[in-house]
Structures are given as structure tokens and as C-alpha cells.
Amino acid sequence: MEGNGIILKKVKSIIRNYNLFTRKEKVLVACSGGKDSTTLAYILKKLGYKIQAVTINPSIKNYSRKNITNLRAFCTENKIKLYEVSFKQEFNYTLDGIKKILDLKGIEMPYCTICGILKRYLLNKKAKELKADKIATGHNLDDEAESVFMNLLRGNMGLMARLGPITGVIKSRGFVPRIKPLYLCREEEIKAYSKLMKFPVVYERCPYAQSSYREIIRNELIGFEKKYPKTKENIINWFLRILPELKKGLKKDKMTYCTICSEPSQRTICNACTIISNLKQKDLNKKHN
């Protein structure tokens, strides 16, 4: 079997065991140009699924340029249709520009939070435009263990319930479900696979990730893993056992939608529209000055 057959077996297993999607469904793979999403796109293509790829470019200086260049080359070689969306095109600002505007307005929001909110917003928008049935992301076991641990420490059971191989709790109009076919794959084995297959990827982490809360949790879990092997696997196994009960508790909640974009939201105006409104207000101020 080509490359590391273990990863292919795990991916096939999780698609089957969690009914992530069928061969009739249109799957859009969210690609960053990194090892995880590149590996995911390659494996789904290899397994015979009819996939397309989409990348959201926040324009993080040379880091984003390298990823986009690599991703274009990879998709061309593997005959995968790639759609490109950028912060600059959609919002008139790069991530750096958006951060500066929010800082000027006294809105304290980390780079990773801004990027995550706007990427999710644009992914869903593009997926609906392309009439995709599912969005596949490259989240692996290590990523999910970090997310579970983060929400546990914050006491945010609502967000934790929305994690898992298929994200979300309640099916809602206008929202394309997210799935994680690499859910049970370890980051180290994905990295080994991508190197073995000589995928054109940047292995360095995003320069803005170093100061994030997730990075702190990531480093703590790495330390735990060294002292107590299988810590991350134990977290995920525990989480998957309690997940049905977590979801059951939230299914009683009434779904609410953003009054501006109509996306599911816990607030009257979602986080993405709040950010976008601040950017538009900045543009209006420029015109009046």
C-alpha cells in the first residue's frame, strides 16, 4: 500500500463509523496549504471521492504566500479543483489590517480569534455558493484534544458539545456541516505521511499562533504526553463517551440566527458580522474625512 497505510485505514474507518458522508455527497475540503489539510485532500481523492478544495487566504505576509503557492501546485498535480477566497477581496483588508482597525476601536481580539471567526464565515459562504453538502477540515486527534481541554478549563460545555467528528448539535438552515476525517489520526503520523509522500507544504506553524491560548494548551499537552503517553488519546476517548449526553442536553435549545447574515448564532449579531460592521464603519469614516 502506498505510503503509510495506517492513516488510510483510520480515515476509511471514521468515515464509515461516524457516517461522515457518502459518495453521492459533494465534499469541499478546506485547505490551508499545511500538512493536515493537504494530506486529507490527497487521501479523499485517492479513496475515490469527488472532492473540491477551497482555501481562505488571510494574507499573513510570506507565510500565506508560501502556502498558497504550494497548494496551487499540489491541486494542479492531483487534478483537484481549487477555489481561492481572500480576506482582502471580501473585506478590503488583510488580517493585519483588520487587527489594527479593531485595536484602534478598543476591541481586544487576538489574531487567531479574528482569523478563526472570519475563516469559518467565509468557508460556509463559499460552501453554500458551491452547493456543497459537507465541508471537510484537516483537524486531527491532537487538535481535538486541545479543543476539548481548552473548553474544559473554560467551563464551556456548550462549545465542547459542538466538537466531535461531525461538528454542531442541531441541523440548521444555511449552515453546511463540518466533518473531520482525520479525527483519529495523530499529528506526528500525518507529518510523517506528508513527508513520505513529499507533499509541498510548510511545516512551520503560523507566526501568530505563538501568542494564542491554544498554543499554551498545546505546549502543556505535549508536556503531559511526554510524561504520560496516550494522554491525548485518553482525552478523546473520554470525550467521545460523554459526547452523546452533551449533545442531548443542547438539542433542547432553540436555534437562533444572526439578524444580518442569517447564520446560526448565540447572539443577535454574530461575531463575524460584528467584525465586518466595524470594518465598514472604518471605510465610511475614510469617505467623510
Describe it.
With 289 residues, the chain is α/β, with parallel strands linked by helices. The chain has one domain: Rossmann fold (3-Layer(aba) Sandwich). The protein is built from twelve helices and five strands. Strands 3-2-1-4-5 form a five-stranded parallel sheet, sandwiched between helices. Strand 1, helix 2 and strand 2 form a beta-alpha-beta unit. The longest helix has 20 residues. It is globular. It starts with a helix and ends with a helix. The model has no long low-confidence stretch (mean pLDDT 91).
- The backbone outline, from C-alpha atoms, is globular
Number of distinct helices: 12
How many structural domains does the protein architecture include? 1
List low-confidence stretches. none
Structural category = alpha/beta
Strands of the biggest beta sheet: in what spatial order? 3-2-1-4-5
Summed over residues and divided by their number, the pLDDT gives a mean of: 91
The helix content, as a percent range, equals 40-55%
Quick one: how many beta strands? 5
Our estimate of the beta-strand percent is 5-15%
Please describe the biggest sheet, giving its number of strands, its sense, and whether it closes into a barrel.
5 strands, parallel
Supply the key terms:
Rossmann fold, alpha/beta, 289 residues, 12 helices, five-stranded parallel sheet, 5 strands
Give the helices and strands, then pairings.
Blueprint: H1 5-17, E1 27-30, H2 35-46, E2 51-57, H3 61-77, E3 82-86, H4 87-91, H5 95-104, H6 111-129, E4 134-136, H7 141-154, H8 157-161, E5 178-179, H9 187-196, H10 213-227, H11 231-250, H12 271-288
Parallel strand pairs: 1-2, 1-4, 2-3, 4-5
Helix pairs in contact: 2-9, 7-10, 7-11
